[in-house]
Amino acid sequence: MKQILVINPGSTSTKIGVFENELQIHGVSLHHSTEELTKFTEISDQRWFREKAIIDWLVEHSVNLDSLTAIVARGGLLCPIPSGTYAVNEAMVHDLELGLYGKHACNLAALIAYDLSQKLNIPSFIVDPVVVDEMSPLAKISGTPGIKRASIFHALNQKAMAKKVAKILNRPYAELNLIVAHLGGGISIGVHQQGKVVDVNNALNGDGPFSPERTGTLPTTELIRYFFSKDFSTDTLIKRFSSKSGLVAHLGTNDSRVIVERIQAGEEKAQFYFEAMAYQIAKELGRAAAVLEGSIDSIVLTGGLAHSNKLTTLIKEYIEFLGPVIIMPGENELKALALGALRVLTGSERAAEYSPRGGEFMPKGRVIVHQERCKECSLCINSCPYSVLGFSKGINSKGFHPVEPMYPEKCTGCTLCAVICPDVVLTIERI
After folding, report:
1. pLDDT digit string (tens) for 204-218?
2. Residue 404's domain spans which residues?
3. Which of these, 173, 174, 178, 182, lies nearest to 209 by C-alpha position?
4. Which of 53, 100, 397, 427 is most buried by its number of CB atoms within 10 A?
5. CA-based max dimension of the chain
6. Do 258 and 406 share a domain, yes or no?
7. DSSP β-bridge partners for residue 73
8. Would residue 384 count as lying in a domain?
9. Residue 357: its pLDDT value, please?
10. Contact assessment for residue 304 and residue 329, using Cβ atoms and an 8 Å cutoff
């Protein structure tokens, strides 16, 4: 019997579950109030607060931590990697702690899992994180050199539902051509071609249909004008487009149930924008069908919004001619995570190793040194995880050997050196 603890943090909650093999025996969604979370400047600062909340709940419900076989966590924003179950290692912890590939509450999961697993001397895993990347080279090309389309989507739920459909059809997942639409706060539409997601929209802050919270694809010229006509910082605009756009911007709510009630009450505005979202989802499904050249075994509508009969009916009216449509509402991410860990624990799958060092996706940085400010304290040299910096042979006007990049090609742009320097000697540019 394998007892597995599952950790899945969201923006304002942390879902946890305890499984005995495939059976869930405990589960809860721990809510974190705005008052609790606003105490923390960075999302990463919430790590110990959330870990304590998890431990307190487990102890309160008489879950013996020493009885756990493994811990599995929702994957965070990491280097793009193939689908699979990954052992949480120091390289992964490093990238999540620094937020090298982005900052989100999901980054906390593996950090907490790793900390607990080290204390308990058991393995910890992640399964199919949002950065699963199986896109074809053609799918990554944009019309602007230097800008590539990225694979960031609801990989865990998409893969789990695709494999579930394969069982329903009694065929191997690796032989099927599926289009899976995850409909939630963000919307991702993935082309599953013989076991790999060869094309998908960036559901976090990229393209595709607008959703209850996200803006989706925008007209380029109007986007440029919008940016320069408003007094927005880049971070403010990204946050607006990724969490305060879509239905919540048009209608003041991201709750489809509330919107449907307003439609039933005769509100034309609610009806119009709800239909517009369905239209854009259907159009994206049509684009996905072209990738498969029309050879589609099934179209799968899943995620929380798939509970809305009104939405799925609107979508089906547009796309049923493309192929059979299967509606699988909701997302049982806790079970999908548990099953991923169980496959490794039972030997039916080998845990992959997260090792982004030197890979094509490793972020890069450029170190700019203001030599006259340096006092040769060595704080930056000691803080750099890749030994990029060293002291130069020259001397500045204050009589100190200033730092300089000894191995500039190793810089990831993590900014640790710049943050720790007391004299603002270093500036880091991401490239």
Report:
1. 877 999 999 999 999
2. 365-430
3. 182
4. 100
5. 77
6. no
7. 7, 126
8. yes
9. 54
10. yes
